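User: Show me an example of a complex going from sequences to structure tokens.

Assistant: Sure. Here are the input components:
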Amino acid sequence: MNIKYIAKKTGTLIITLLIVSFLSFLAFQIIPGDAALSKLGTAATAEKAEALRQEMGLNQPVLVRYGRWLADFVRGDMGTSYSYSMPVREMIGSKLPITLAITMISFLMILILSVPLGLLAGKHEGKSLDRALTVVNQIVMSVPGFFLGILITYLFGLVLKWFVPGGYISYTESFSGFLIYLIPPCIAIALPKCAMGVKMLRGSVIQELQSDYVRTAISRGCRENTVLYRHVLRNALIPVLTFWAMTIADIVAGSIIIEQVFTIPGLGTMLITSISNRDYPVVQCIIVLIAGLVVIVNFIVDLLYRRIDPRITGQ
Amino acid sequence: MKRKERNYNLILGGCLAALMIAFMVVGLFYTPYDPDAMSGPSKFAGPSLQHLFGCDHFGRDIFSRVLTGSGTTFFVAVSTIVIGGGIGTLAGAFTGYFGGWLDEILMRINDAVASFPSILLALVFISILGPGKYNVILALGVIFIPSFARIVRSEFISNKEKDYVKSARLMGASHVRIMFVHILPNVVPTLLSAIAIGFNNAVLAEAGMSYLGIGVQPPDASLGRMLAESQTYLSRAPWCAVFPGLTVILLVLGFGLLSDGLQKGRGSVSCWR
């Protein structure tokens, strides 16, 4: 991988991040009623609002305000929450690890489950094992994550009593307890995505199995499994990689809902509460963070893509 | 010649989707009980012949509520597809057919929007517009434009170089006529499959947002909201959660299979012509 390519991609990354943050900034500028009015609440008079607007710099052009906001954001000053009068940074800082933990555990689950199952289904294409997997897949894919969460709560929480629904344990209290409580919600997020992953990998494996190099390898006397793991898997994973990148974004989005199902006080719960309270600085900050995460993950996958598949020339 | 294999996805998906649509259409005109009528004695009544799906914490008949709730979901999903699919098809047709700088700009925006999960974008819209059925439709509709535009665009690009377009051009057909009378019918199979996927995404997004309490608002019945309410009484009345959830699953399953079947059938359709 050459340095020029990385530099070019990094440039694109920075531009994309700027565009995304500007759009998110702009989106929250068109809301009727401005920050000054929201801050004053019922005590607002025309003069007071005007004075506060001057003080907060709301009368300046959009680009100037965006520049100031971005400079503050990068330095770690993410504004102050309307509802809690607390720095947004402090509020988000304690929630971020929770959502990150959920994302990582779910992603690991997807990897661990979907790769072997996808290979298995692709290898036995058309046989009963593959057919059974495909049927199960199709059904699991149709289950909305939050309903799966409710089903898991009912079956494993209320009937089998394997965990206490709503009994969230903070990571500051007991880290292992925290991780264990996260397992059921992560399953609820991971299973539908996992089914999609299996479907994609299966298709990809079937396509690769028809290529010439597989026939060559088999005719040279390679064992079927050797061909499958050494040659086919590597090539079959290339298209699936993009899917995985998208999955990370989907997991973060899915966790917004799943956190509600399992009453986990993560970023998602805070986002929903802030939307209901019209606490725009918090909403804006969370949106920008998640959007930034998505852009950065896509950047990393782009680089990985080149590394795995040298045929891609970066055009 | 290879015997034409039966497209089970298409058959099964079509049947299931038709069944669910019929279910929802019935819900628009007829429900066995008033979906909002509360009744003390039938509070938490289990599924029985009188109340097929049981009753909820207010003694409301769940079957009737599922019927009207899926009607709402259907309305939201179809409106979303009309907005997103309509504008997306137009945008994709023009950009794909004419190309140029407008195409370049629109596609860059498309790429940016497409990489974000739709529920997150919908949340941004809702936090600006406020909750409610029509805002959900507007938000989802706008969000779905890029995916349709991209699919239609790529089809138009591959079709515009074909001989039938050139001969139509030679015969003096206008660009607009070529786009909508000649090329569009060839795009329909792909478009149908995209519509089925879009419909599913709309159903899931609507259910998710209503579950979060920022989608469809009462008095409109909604499957997502029913699921949210059912969670409090999950140990006492699991049927409050099971039936609305099952309805969503069957709906998504039906349209998912339909879309798969349409994609698979596409190759054979062009072969048989």
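The lines above are the inputs; the final block is the predicted structure for all two components together. Chain A touches chain B through 47 residues (CB under 8 Å).
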